[in-house]
Predict the 3D structure of the following.
Amino acid sequence: MPISANRSLGIQKNKLMRYKLIKELYQKHKTEDIPTTVVWRKYVYPVYPISRTTLYEILCTPITSELKKIEELMNNKENLRNPS
């Protein structure tokens, strides 16, 4: 297995884990009466300096299902490398 494929899976996994943290922070402060832009400006941007567009992308990403897919791929590759 090429190292670059394994590395790209790791990069994708780390990105999704960061997305998860950002989404949790957003959901912690988001209420019905506070607009998304205010939550982004007051709470998300000081910790994670991302744009509003990136925040919207994160909020629309199916993080848990994507993480499961990556974990399965990594486990399958590990099983191929070390057969029992």
